[in-house]
Amino acid sequence: MGVVLSSPFTIHHSLLAIRGAYAMRLANKVALVTGAASGFGKAMAETFAREGAKVAVVDINAGAAKEVAKAIGPAALAVACDVSRKADVDVATAAVVSAFGTIDILVNNAGAAHRNRPMLEVDEAEFDRVFAVNVKSIFLFAHAVIPVFRRQGRGVIINIGSTAGIRPRPGLAWYNASKGAVNLLSKSMAVELAPDKIRVCALAPVAGETALLPTFLGSDDPAVRAKFVASVPLGRLSVPQDVANAALFLASDEAEFLTGVVLEVDGGRCV
User: What is the extent of the structural domain holding 251?
Assistant: First the structure.
């Protein structure tokens, strides 16, 4: 008997069927994403929702958070929150649990930076703000969300670090330090929380196509941008979807044996 070959039409629809079976990678999950009204956070919120999750769009900009949640649809909830304030974090966490019943995934994405310039030109208020938003927020959300995870016996935390905490460069000294803290804190949390079946990983993106880019580069000059892009082996900056795709993997059950990972989303810049 000869071999029966499937037609391209049959193969195509078979692949679609297989893809469909695995498409909803976060079905029945609830995700809380901070800084979700723009940039990386917005892309993560949208991607998580497309993959079946209910998503809390948490941001200090209440109006923008509402717009993102409205665009996502009924699976999204807008929550106004200053992630550096304990009262805001506690209220936001309670609001998400009240609306969706629980939290399965926490993404600490909200971030702040000082403009690229010599370290002694950064004032104390800027320093305090960078560490409050980038580091203290993780402390506050840990206190608010880990008890929820422990009650249900599982959870995933994804902290957004940076290549700045791995391969630091002049001009961003205090920002670099804050992201180095995020990267190491993620590993520390992973070790301590593993017995509770709580996974903790971090993403370390290279500078991306977001509103913060001129702050990181210290200039809007195309020549400055081109010089930085030339330092990325794959020849471009990150885009929000790059980060969202990586976060989706780490949040999904496909990554169930990964914890303490700091995944570089950087086009090879840290090599």
Answer: 25-265
Q: Is 234 within a domain?
A: yes
Q: Does the active-site annotation cover 22?
A: no
pLDDT digits (tens, 9 = 90+) for 59-104: 999 999 999 999 999 999 999 999 999 999 999 999 999 999 999 9
Residue 3 belongs to some domain of the structure: no
Q: How far is CA 47 from the centre of its chain?
A: 11
User: Bridge partners of 33?
Assistant: 57, 107
Tens digits of per-residue pLDDT, 148-196? 999 999 999 999 999 999 999 889 999 999 999 999 999 999 999 999 9
Q: What is the pLDDT of residue 22?
A: 54
Cα–Cα distance list, 236 to 19, 70, 222, 229, 268 (Å): 29, 31, 13, 5, 10
Name which of 134, 263, 260, 109 is nearest 198 in CA terms. Answer: 260
Q: Classify residue 182: in a domain, yes or no.
A: yes
The domain that contains 41 carries what CATH number?
3.40.50.720
Query: Given the structure tokens 């200090």, which residue do they identify?
Result: 60
Task: Tell me the whole-structure pTM to 2 decimals.
Answer: 0.90
Determine, yes or no, domain membership for 7: no
Q: How many domains is the chain partitioned into structurally?
A: 1
CA 184-96-256 angle, to 5 degrees, is: 45
Catalytic residue among 141, 175, 216, 228: 175
